[in-house]
Write a structure and sequence with these properties.
Elements: E1 6-11, H1 18-30, E2 35-41, H2 48-51, E3 57-61, E4 67-71, E5 75-81, E6 87-91, H3 94-110, E7 112-114
Parallel strand pairs: 1-2, 2-3
Antiparallel strand pairs: 1-4, 3-7, 4-5, 5-6
């Protein structure tokens, strides 16, 4: 994954092996000025400490259908089913990345900003 400017992450739930994804993103952000936006379901509000991305801008949304990661609006990992049998699609196809990015921005703009002191 080649992210240089921004990473948008939508999490309806914390998927298996998320620690690896989180470590990868933290490593990318540590050595470059990448902006991270994290959109999480309100059901995860109590679990935000598990996400451990202190530099991310976080928004909370009541309902989210599916999730994924978008890098620089050009690469997309779409999580299809994360509850019982995780499945994902990764693509660099510009049209799919644009659709995912537009959908993320739409939800982001209607979601509530989250501040760390709001966890309780």
């Amino acid at each position: 994954v080649d992210c240089e400017k921004e990473i948008d992450i939508a999490l309806p739930m914390i998927p298996p092996r998320f620690e690896e994804i989180s470590a990868f993103i933290k490593n990318k952000v540590e050595f470059s000025p990448i902006k991270v936006r994290l959109l999480v379901s309100s059901s995860l509000k109590e679990e935000l400490s598990l996400i451990n991305m202190p530099d991310a801008e976080i928004h909370i949304v009541d309902k989210m259908f599916g999730g994924g990661i978008i890098c620089d609006k050009s690469e997309t990992l779409i999580l299809m089913s994360v509850e019982r049998s995780p499945m994902a699609i990764w693509t660099k196809h510009s049209a799919l990345a644009e659709i995912a990015s537009t959908y993320f921005d739409y939800i982001w703009n209607s979601a509530k900003p989250f501040k760390p002191h709001q966890a309780n």
